[in-house]
Amino acid sequence: LVAEAVAIRSALQDAIDLGLQKLYLVLDAAALTQAINQKKTLSEIHGILHDILNLSLCFEEIVFLFVPREANYLADNNSLRDF
């Protein structure tokens, strides 16, 4: 959970640096997605969640979407096959 939260924070900062205004993030961690979307705190990542929520205010539109890992794996494989 900590590693994924750190990765999201880093991705948000990179997107800001690139000047992106709209961002759609697909996450496979249900608890993290719920915490972000409902602005709830998780004690083990409290500070990182605070950073994520603050960084998300920099976007015109931002979506955090939960997709189970198995479904994400299938989507990745299909998109790579079609590429």
Automatic annotation (TrEMBL):
Pfam families: RVT_3. Residues 2-76 form the RNase H type-1 domain. It comes from the Eukaryota. One of its GO terms (molecular function) is RNA-DNA hybrid ribonuclease activity. This is RNase H type-1 domain-containing protein.
